[in-house]
């Protein structure tokens, strides 16, 4: 269904979706099958056999040596006898070149090796250019129509093991035995979550989050439970299991080891990206990564759902970057989910005690680390929900007349709406592990397409809602928080435009606590229901930083000012700077948002 309303940054994600499409149907099918069949369980500290009751296809746990190696070609249903000959032994981790799905028809393929266009037995070859990547539009407008009438025409990219680009390739798409041998260790998976489920409090929370997504036993248990019935858009438990597997990028393993303990990061920024190294999203992500290195002392965990990571992202340049790789979401019409559900997958696979999710069109600013502390202060056993910042607009059924959730939560904003518990929030969640079960529960509801029942609350009749019909992650997170009666949100710590940072860049010590320069000093627009005087801006992160060149310049300017001790406090409300949330809330006890 179409988006119910325009929201900040949605156009970017439309394009991201296109990029995802470029990766395509065939690839996900193949990756799913390949990763499942070829994966050999290699738990780091497992003592003997662990019985995993039907987490995954009732398959027995197999020792790595007895896994029957299947070449990528075989998995793709192609016959290439040459590729079979060089089955690598553990000491020779180099296999023969193999083809991977690169782009569906009408999308672009970015590839260092040869590219081929066509389907099954008929291909048009585009030879590689030595030493450089090619980006090709895979369509009959640019390439000969080798299989007229075939809608499944696509491009494939030839990957050659051992090359420099191979080291940066998503290890979820290569032979899974080889990924393991190369050291791209599996760091998240249903089996690992299950095996660790009693190890520490965080692991228990993780399994609580994952059980309904991962476990076939659970699926069987609830088969006759009407309230947990899966709908027509459900992803099977096998597909769900594939979607929660992540491998660490070999080059960033040491960094991961340095920042994690017993498999968990204490704190971390978490983002996600897909796209070739020339894509604007990857360039935006690079600025975000830079900003974390400038202004935070915590690591940033980047989930890659695409093919190849850029050459310039090295552990030397970014000593607090950790890249984890996973597979893209399915793209078949009835299984399709918005690209942004990868945000929720990233959160569930990131294994951080305390996390702050940031999109690639964000950057962080001085003082942002305090958000980790505040997140730990507000999210705990008694309040086990993520916190998101208030949106810049108080969306309602007036802006989104066709959105399926409003009849349940607020059919008329002029009247009391007991089911809507707070203003629309922006999908930039922060969380502690206490909120993991919440994420797991709602991703499960979406991925199983469950239905929320009709309820009556204080005389208000709320009709049911099919969760799988909710189009975007942000829509679902708002629905989920209201549904569970959560009431807390952040003030606007993701300030909508980079230009607003000009107001802080123009601050002079002689201004004192007055914010005098530009639109960055004004409140976020108010509303009659939640924030009559508007919402404070908190300059811990920027949003809509969509021009990497501009972002890079702003980051340097901020850095210079910060180093000179001339960066003002981050909180701005009523044209004033506030040194802390305490100071602001003491003066304005009516403000519902947290800082
Ligand atoms: C069905 O599932 C719901 C939600 O988990 C649970 O509260 C309820 O007890 C279950 N019903 C039965 C009959 O098992
Ligand atoms: C839920 O409410 C809708 C109308 O809002 C009604 O058509 C439907 O029959 C109700 N379902 C149940 C199970 O009561």
Judged by helices, strands and strand pairing, the structural class is alpha+beta
What does the radius of gyration come to?
Answer: 24 Å
Beta-strand segment tally: 23
Which ions and ligands are bound to the chains? 2-acetamido-2-deoxy-beta-D-glucopyranose
Poorly predicted runs are 1-93
Average of the residue pLDDT scores: 86
The N- and C-terminal alpha carbons lie at a distance of 35 Å
Which percent band covers the strand fraction?
15-25%
Helix content: 25-40%
Largest sheet: 8 strands, mixed
Shape: globular
**Count the helices. How many?**
18
Protein name: S-norcoclaurine synthase 1
Keywords: Membrane, Transmembrane, Transmembrane helix
Transmembrane segments: 12-31
Region (Disordered): 48-90
Plain-language structure description:
With 595 residues, the protein is an alpha+beta fold. Among the domains are: 110-159, no CATH class; 492-587, no CATH class. Helix content is 29%, strand content 16%. The protein is built from 18 helices and 23 strands. Strands 7, 8, 9, 10, 11, 12, 13 and 15 form an eight-stranded mixed β-sheet that branches. Strand 20, helix 16 (501-505) and strand 21 form a beta-alpha-beta unit. Helix 6 packs parallel to helix 14 (436-447), helix 10 (280-295) packs parallel to helix 17 and helix 11 (341-349) packs across helix 14. It is globular. The model is unreliable at 1-93 (pLDDT under 50). Bound molecules: 2-acetamido-2-deoxy-beta-D-glucopyranose (NAG) (2 copies). The site of one 2-acetamido-2-deoxy-beta-D-glucopyranose has 3 residues, from loops.
